[in-house]
C-alpha cells in the first residue's frame, strides 16, 4: 500500500466510525441504567473512547510481553453490559470496577495457559452464555423505548413513535445498503433519531454547553473499587467468554494477513486484553475485547497495514481527551437509544444462537446443556428471590442469572462432554466460523 498520510488517516477514521457506535453505546446504556448525572455520563463516554484507543495500541504493538501485533481494534465488550448493570444495581458502581480490576488481573495471570483452557469453552458453553446475556438485556431496551424506567412520560406515544422510528430506520439501512453504510447503521440511526427528537423538543444541549474542551483522565473517578465475590465471579466469566471470542478474531486476522500464530502470540494477545481491562478498571472505563466488525472492514478495504490501526488508536485517544465530543452523545434521548438497543441486544441473542449453530444438535446431552443453562439464566433473572433462603456461600452462584446460567453450562459440559470423553465441537470450528 502507498504510505500516503492522507489515505492512512482516512482509513483510520473509517475504522473509528465502524466501531464508534458500539464503543459509545455501552457507557450510555450502563450510565443511564445506573442513574449517572450528565457530567458523570460525559466523563464515562469520554474515558471509554480514550481507553478504546489505549487498548488498541496495546494490542497492535507487539513486544516480548504483550500485543498480538495484528491490525486489530479493541472496544468495550457488549457481553459485559448486562452483568455491569446487575452488579451496579445490587452493589453500586464501585463494585463494578472492583470486579473488572480482578477479572483483568485474572486474564493476565492465565494468559500463558488460556490456549489450553479453551477446550472447556466449546460453542455449547459460549453460545449459551452469550444467548443468556442477550436475553437478560432485552428488558433494558424495552424500558428505554418507553422513556426510561420511572420517567413521568413512560410509555407515551411520542416515546414509542420515536423508538420504533429509530428501529425502522436502522432496519431500512440494513435492507437497502451494504458495506460501510451498513457497518455504521446503528450510529446513523442514533443520529437520525436525535435529529427528529430535536424537532419534537426532546433534546437537551445543556450537557454539551457545560462540558470542557479538554480534560485529563482521572484514576478512580467514581471512587475506590470495592470487591464482591458474586460480582467478581460474574466478570471473570465474562472475561473468559470474551477471550474465546477474541481467539476466533486472532485466527481470522492471522488468516487475512497471512501470519501463522504461535502459542506465544496468543498469550501476548490475551495479556494485552488483560492489561486493557485493568486500565479500564483504574480509569473507570470498561472491559475491552477485539472488535470483529473491524475485521470485516479490513476484508472490505483490503488494507492490512498496522499503520492504519495505529492511526485509528491515536484518533480515539484524541477524541477521548475532548469531553465536548463525548457530551454530544449524551444528548441522545432515551427512546432513541431504546430503539437502537432492540437491534443491538437482539443481535447479541442472534450471535449466541449463531455460535450454538456449530453444536451437534443430534446429541441429547448438548440439547440438555443448552436447555438447562438458558432456562436457569432466564429463570433467575425473572425470579431473583428464588434462592433468597439459601446460605450466602451458595447464593454467590445463584443471585445473578448470568452466573447461574453460565455455571450450569460449564458444569454440564464437563459432566456430559469432557469427563465422558464425547467428541465435542471444539473452538477450532468456532475460529473457522469467526474467520468466515
TrEMBL record:
Residues spanning the membrane: 12-34, 40-58, 65-85, 91-110, 117-140, 160-177, 184-209, 229-251, 308-329, 336-356, 368-388, 400-419
Pfam families with a match to the protein in the record: Xan_ur_permease
Molecular functions per Gene Ontology: xanthine transmembrane transporter activity
Compartments reported by the entry: Cell membrane
Chief localisation class: membrane
Keywords attached to this entry: Cell membrane, Membrane, Transmembrane, Transmembrane helix, Transport
Cellular component aspect of the GO annotation: plasma membrane
PROSITE patterns (alphabetical): XANTH_URACIL_PERMASE
InterPro entries in alphabetical order: NCS2, UacT-like, Xan_ur_permease
Topology in the lipid bilayer: Multi-pass membrane protein
NCBIfam families membership: ncs2, NCS2_1, pbuX
Similarity comment: Belongs to the nucleobase:cation symporter-2 (NCS2) (TC 2.A.40) family.
Stated name of the protein: Xanthine permease
Organism: Cytobacillus oceanisediminis
Organism placement in taxonomy: Bacteria, Bacillati, Bacillota, Bacilli, Bacillales
Amino acid at each position: 500500500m502507498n504510505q500516503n498520510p492522507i489515505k492512512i488517516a482516512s482509513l483510520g477514521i473509517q475504522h473509528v466510525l465502524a466501531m464508534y457506535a458500539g464503543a459509545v453505546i455501552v457507557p450510555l446504556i450502563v450510565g443511564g441504567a445506573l442513574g449517572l448525572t450528565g457530567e458523570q455520563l460525559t466523563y464515562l463516554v469520554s474515558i471509554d473512547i480514550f481507553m478504546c484507543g489505549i487498548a488498541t495500541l496495546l494490542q497492535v504493538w507487539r513486544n516480548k510481553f504483550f500485543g498480538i501485533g495484528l491490525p486489530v481494534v479493541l472496544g468495550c465488550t457488549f457481553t459485559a453490559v448486562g452483568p455491569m448493570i446487575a452488579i451496579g444495581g445490587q452493589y453500586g458502581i464501585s463494585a463494578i470496577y472492583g470486579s473488572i480490576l480482578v477479572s483483568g488481573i485474572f486474564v493476565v495471570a492465565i494468559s500463558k495457559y488460556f490456549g489450553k483452557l479453551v477446550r472447556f469453552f466449546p460453542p455449547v458453553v459460549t453460545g449459551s452464555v452469550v444467548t443468556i446475556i442477550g436475553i437478560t438485556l432485552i428488558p433494558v431496551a424495552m424500558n428505554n423505548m418507553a422513556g426510561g424506567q420511572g420517567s413521568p412520560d413512560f410509555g407515551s406515544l411520542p416515546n414509542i413513535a420515536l423508538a420504533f422510528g429509530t428501529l425502522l430506520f436502522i432496519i431500512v439501512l440494513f435492507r437497502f445498503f451494504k458495506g460501510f453504510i451498513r457497518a455504521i447503521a446503528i450510529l446513523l440511526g442514533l443520529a437520525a433519531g436525535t435529529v427528529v427528537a430535536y424537532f419534537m423538543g426532546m433534546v437537551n444541549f445543556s450537557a454539551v454547553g457545560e462540558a470542557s474542551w479538554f480534560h485529563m483522565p482521572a484514576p478512580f473517578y467514581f471512587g475506590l473499587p470495592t470487591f464482591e465475590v458474586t460480582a467478581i465471579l460474574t466478570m471473570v466469566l465474562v472475561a473468559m467468554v470474551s477471550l474465546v471470542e477474541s481467539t476466533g478474531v486472532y485466527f481470522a486476522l492471522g488468516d487475512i494477513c497471512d501470519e501463522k500464530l504461535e502459542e506465544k502470540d496468543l498469550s501476548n494477545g490475551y495479556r494485552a486484553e488483560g492489561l486493557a481491562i485493568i486500565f479500564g478498571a483504574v480509569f473507570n472505563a470498561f472491559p475491552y475485547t477485539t472488535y470483529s466488525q473491524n475485521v470485516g472492514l479490513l476484508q472490505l478495504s483490503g488494507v492490512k497495514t498496522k499503520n492504519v490501526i495505529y492511526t485509528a488508536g491515536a484518533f480515539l485517544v484524541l477524541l477521548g481527551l475532548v469531553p465536548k465530543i463525548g457530551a454530544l452523545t449524551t444528548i441522545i434521548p432515551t427512546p432513541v437509544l431504546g430503539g437502537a438497543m432492540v437491534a443491538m441486544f437482539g443481535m447479541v441473542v442472534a450471535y449466541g444462537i449463531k455460535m450454538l449453530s456449530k453444536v451437534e444438535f443430534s446429541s441429547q446431552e448438548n440439547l440438555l446443556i443448552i436447555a438447562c443453562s438458558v432456562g436457569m439464566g432466564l429463570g433467575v433473572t425473572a425470579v431473583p428471590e428464588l434462592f433468597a433462603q439459601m446460605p450466602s456461600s451458595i447464593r454467590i452462584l445463584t443471585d445473578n442469572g448470568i452466573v447461574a446460567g453460565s455455571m450450569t453450562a460449564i458444569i454440564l459440559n464437563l459432566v456430559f462432554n469432557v469427563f465422558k470423553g464425547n467428541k465435542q465441537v471444539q473452538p477450532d470450528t468456532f475460529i473457522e466460523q469467526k474467520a468466515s
